[in-house]
Amino acid sequence: MRKRSIARLGAVALLLCSSAAQSQMLQNITMGNPKALALGNAVTADPPGLDSIHFNPAGLAKLRHRGQQFKVMAAHMEITSETGPQRNSPADVAGFEEFYGVPFPEDDQANRKATATKPMLILPIEGMTKVPAIVAPFGGAWWESESMGITFATTAYTPAAFGFERDRDNDPGAYQGYEVALTRLTYLAPSIGIQFSETLSIGLSIGLSWQGFGTKTKFRAPEQTLVFLGGTTEQLNDAIADPEDQLSILGAFDNVGDLTLEMEDVLSPSFNIGVLWEPTPWLAFGLVYQSEAKADMEGEFSMRYSEEFYGTTTDLKPISPLLALVGGAEFAAVPFQEGDASLEMTMPQHLSLGTSVQILPDLKVNVDVKWTDYS
User: Fold this and answer.
1) Parallel, antiparallel, or unpaired: how do β-strands 157-165 and 179-188 relate?
2) Do 43 and 55 form a contact (C-beta atoms < 8 A)?
3) How far apart are CA 58 and CA 283, in angstroms?
4) How far apart are CA 318 and CA 309, in angstroms?
5) In 3D, which of 124, 112, 29 has the Cα closest to residue 73?
6) Spatial CA neighbour of 202 closest among 143, 141, 278
């Protein structure tokens, strides 16, 4: 008994000496498992019931007989956008002001801040959908074969889900999407957990997922060329007497247009494989590998250009063939374009190693070391 107590104290000492680490907010959070959320997802060696399918499939071997799980996940998010001061090189500013004799134009999006709280989802069939609140039901079931020492299971869950709506006109983040939604929905996850011995179990799960991505975003062209081109156009217009012949030009920080994208992949497979070793009733070690998942999404795009950009391309279209001489292309000079779109998005592979120590009957400490391949 004394040796066991000393061993427990040694394990606790090692855990207390662990250093802090950083993590990515979206990863695992939309699983909606209360135990995993409360423990910062440090459940590799202490898998949470049916959700072991995701966190460590070896934990399925601990489920007995047969059963079902039903849960409802509700979420509230706030997305804050903040921009800093305008930054332009002193040479550009000095050159512009010396050439035209007027102040360098100011960026109306500098030093702004806004918060978005309106939720949005992208769903199968429905596509981009505004919702009053993010509420999602999930469920699954398991069945234990006592004669084989195997537990079979499946469930539906969301490894990743995120979406919001910003104020298009007053939020500086609108240039990074005023409507954005990403969903990865695993609708079927055939899984097994095998009890090899009293202390060792392994597990495997196959995830069959739908993945969708959608956005509506503003574009602008804060290029230095437009600053100088705008100044030149103002001087040319001063020399043009007829108002109908006045040139239109896009300002340096004006909106180019609004891009809408909506794409999906109805079958994006992945797999999780895990090991759980429990050498004593109070100590456990877990290991799980989650494969990367590639989604080859296809859909449609549309681009509605602003009046300023359309006017600019229309006025410059007669000279746009000259752009071919420097590797460019002619201006289309149309107010609207649409067509097919495709996007390959990779959810990164992930490896997690964890330990769980039962210090007291009502006190357990879990620690995980996680690696995610964002390269």
Assistant:
1) antiparallel
2) yes
3) 16
4) 15
5) 29
6) 278
Distance (Å, whole) CA 334 – CA 130:
30
pTM to 2 decimal places? 0.81
For the chain, the distance separating the N- and C-terminal CA atoms, rounded to the nearest angstrom, is 48
* Residue corresponding to tokens 């992930």: 350
Name the DSSP class of 54: H
Amino acid making up residue 202: I
Q: What is the pLDDT along the chain (375 residues), one digit of tens a residue?
A: 444 444 443 444 333 444 444 445 567 788 888 899 889 899 999 999 999 999 999 999 999 999 999 988 888 888 888 999 988 888 878 877 776 677 888 888 899 999 988 999 999 999 999 988 888 888 999 999 888 889 999 999 998 888 999 999 889 889 889 999 999 999 999 999 999 899 999 999 999 999 999 999 998 875 555 555 555 555 555 545 555 554 556 667 788 899 999 999 999 999 999 999 999 999 999 999 999 999 999 999 999 998 888 877 777 777 667 666 656 667 777 889 999 999 999 999 999 999 999 999 999 999 999 999 988
The DSSP annotation for 114-160 comes to EEE-EEEEEETTTEEEE-SSEEEEEEEEEEEETTTTEEEEEE-EEEE
Tokens of 203: 């597990």
Under 8 Å between Cβ of 275 and 286: yes
The Cα angle at residue 107 between residues 102 and 112, in degrees rounded to 5: 145
